[in-house]
């Protein structure tokens, strides 16, 4: 990674924003754009170019929330957030600097910019593992509902999974996600909007399941026909398995699926969940 000198940090962050062609991710616990005309112009240019922006801020900061909303964005609220990251589709900046005008003019900060695809991938893996899931966290408690004979697409998926696994399947709805519950695992399903709209699934797994999958991931990938990722919690966090449907969707919210997407999403969910459950059937 390349060290950015303190008096160049804000300028390089704004350059990252200006150079984005596909997406921008801003992770800044505290924000204040008052009188900061240059950065306001950067975000205005993004909106004019229709570049999607994901904003992550600290959950308990009312002023920061108002500042981000004043730019026209609804930020993701993250409890205890201290990370500062600035990412576009080509490179990322990791910094101690918040997007505060006072930080730009008064604070001594440090920052590094990625210089290789490997470094960029490491930052994106951190983002996808620890920050992105906050987009799907519910603000209210989930209501667990058993399968019922109705026409909702989730019920059809549950019924098909139940027939294949010969088990009773439940699902719960929460803001931005659906959770399918088999006797073996819980699968969080949501639509990721960072670049295009992609269906993503994740399930927490035991260490023994992680070790088994690490030796058999190619066979599972072939069966599911999608990109799979094993995330090693390294003893501090839960290990997990992630899946991503390769085809972009019209739908932006798993709770409001567009008609053309329903069949494709349903088939993928059934394939992913049943294949993972079968592979891990005897692994605890």
Describe this structure as you would to a colleague.
It is elongated, with a radius of gyration of 21 Å. Helices cover 37% and strands 25% of the residues. The strands form 3 sheets. A 7-stranded mixed beta sheet has the order 1-9-7-6-2-4-5, sandwiched between helices. The chain has a 7-stranded antiparallel beta sheet with strand order 10-11-12-13-14-16-15, with helices on one face. Strands 3-8 form a two-stranded parallel sheet. The chain has 2 domains: 2-136, Endonuclease, Chain A (2-Layer Sandwich), CATH 3.30.870.10; 143-279, Yope Regulator, Chain: A, CATH 3.30.1460. The protein contains 8 helices and 16 strands. The longest helix is centred in the C-terminal third of the chain and has 21 residues, at 259-279. A hairpin with a 3-residue loop joins β6 (85-88) and β7 (92-95). The chain is an alpha+beta fold and 284 residues long. α7 packs across α8 (259-279).
Give a brief outline of the structure.
The chain has 284 residues and is α+β, with helices and mostly antiparallel strands. It contains eight helices and 16 strands.
Q: What is the number of E strands?
A: 16
Oligomer: single chain
The CATH topology of the largest domain: Yope Regulator, Chain: A
Query: Class by helix and strand content?
Result: alpha+beta
What is the CATH class of the largest domain?
Alpha Beta
Classify the beta-strand content into a percent band.
Answer: 25-35%
Mean pLDDT: 86
- Whole-Å distance between the termini? 40 Å
- Total helical elements: 8
């Amino acid at each position: 990674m390349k060290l950015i000198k303190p008096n160049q940090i804000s300028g390089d962050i704004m350059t990252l924003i200006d150079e984005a062609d596909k997406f921008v991710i801003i992770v800044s616990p505290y924000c204040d754009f008052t009188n900061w005309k240059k950065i306001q112009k950067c975000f205005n240019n993004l909106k004019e170019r229709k570049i999607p922006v994901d904003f992550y801020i600290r959950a308990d900061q009312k002023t920061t929330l108002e500042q981000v909303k004043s730019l026209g964005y609804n930020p993701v609220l993250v409890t205890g957030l201290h990370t500062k990251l600035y990412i576009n589709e080509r490179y990322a900046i990791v910094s101690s600097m918040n997007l505060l005008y006072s930080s730009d003019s008064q604070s001594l900060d440090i920052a590094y910019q990625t210089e290789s695809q490997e470094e960029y991938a490491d930052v994106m893996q951190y983002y996808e593992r620890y920050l992105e899931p906050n987009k799907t966290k519910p603000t209210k408690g989930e209501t667990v509902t058993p399968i019922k004979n109705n026409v909702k697409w989730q019920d059809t998926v549950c019924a098909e999974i139940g027939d294949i696994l010969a088990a009773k399947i439940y699902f719960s709805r929460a803001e931005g996600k659906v959770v399918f519950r088999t006797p073996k695992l819980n699968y969080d399903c949501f639509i990721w909007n960072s670049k295009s709209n992609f269906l993503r699934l994740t399930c927490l797994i035991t260490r023994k399941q992680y070790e088994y999958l690490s030796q058999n991931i190619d066979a599972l990938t072939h069966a599911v026909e999608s990109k799979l990722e094993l995330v090693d919690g390294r003893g501090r966090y839960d290990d997990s398995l992630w899946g991503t449907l390769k085809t972009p969707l019209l739908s932006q919210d798993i709770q409001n699926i567009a008609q053309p997407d329903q069949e494709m999403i349903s088939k993928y969910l059934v394939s992913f969940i049943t294949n993972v459950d079968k592979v891990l059937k005897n692994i605890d």
